[in-house]
Write a structure and sequence with these properties.
Helices cover 19% and strands 38% of the residues. A hairpin with a 6-residue loop joins β2 and β3. It has one domain: GTP Cyclohydrolase I, domain 2 (2-Layer Sandwich). It starts with 10 loop residues before the first strand and ends in a 13-residue tail after the last strand. The chain is α+β, with helices and mostly antiparallel strands and 129 residues long. The longest helix has 16 residues. The protein is built from 2 helices and 6 strands.
């Protein structure tokens, strides 16, 4: 196999650090294990962030997400862990991670966690006619 799961998140310099802009990443194939039953849990992850000096490199993000496949984790814990790791690696102005877990026992779980850099204020939204 040419790739292996990894907890290492690589970054690269933001090509436009003077500008606030949003990077949106959709990851439809996240899996981990239920810590109670060992059965697989499936989720679609949505990462939205306003970078500061660094951006996350996508192949390393893919391998990072893959690294949870054999780990038992509660939905709330794993979502917060991922956000913490992503914030530590990239130090963004703003970051939001949304995890939409698939149905299990008739229950859907969505977990949304956010980070906002101290002192950062978002631009005012523009409403076009």
């Amino acid at each position: 196999m040419s790739s292996q799961p990894s907890k290492e998140l690589e970054t690269f310099p933001n090509p436009q650090p003077a500008r606030d802009y949003t990077i949106r990443i959709r990851m439809p194939e996240f899996t981990c294990l239920c810590p109670k039953t060992g059965q697989p849990d499936f989720a679609e992850l949505f990462l939205d962030y306003v970078p500061d000096e660094l951006c996350v490199e996508l192949k390393s993000l893919k391998l990072y997400i893959w690294s949870f496949r054999e780990e038992g984790a509660f939905h709330e814990a794993v979502t917060n862990e991922m956000l913490g790791d992503l914030v530590a690696a990239t130090r963004p102005r703003f970051m939001r991670l949304t995890a939409e877990f698939k149905v299990r026992g008739g229950i859907y779980t969505n977990v949304v966690v956010e980070h906002r850099a101290e002192g950062w204020q978002p631009s005012q939204a523009v409403s076009l006619p």
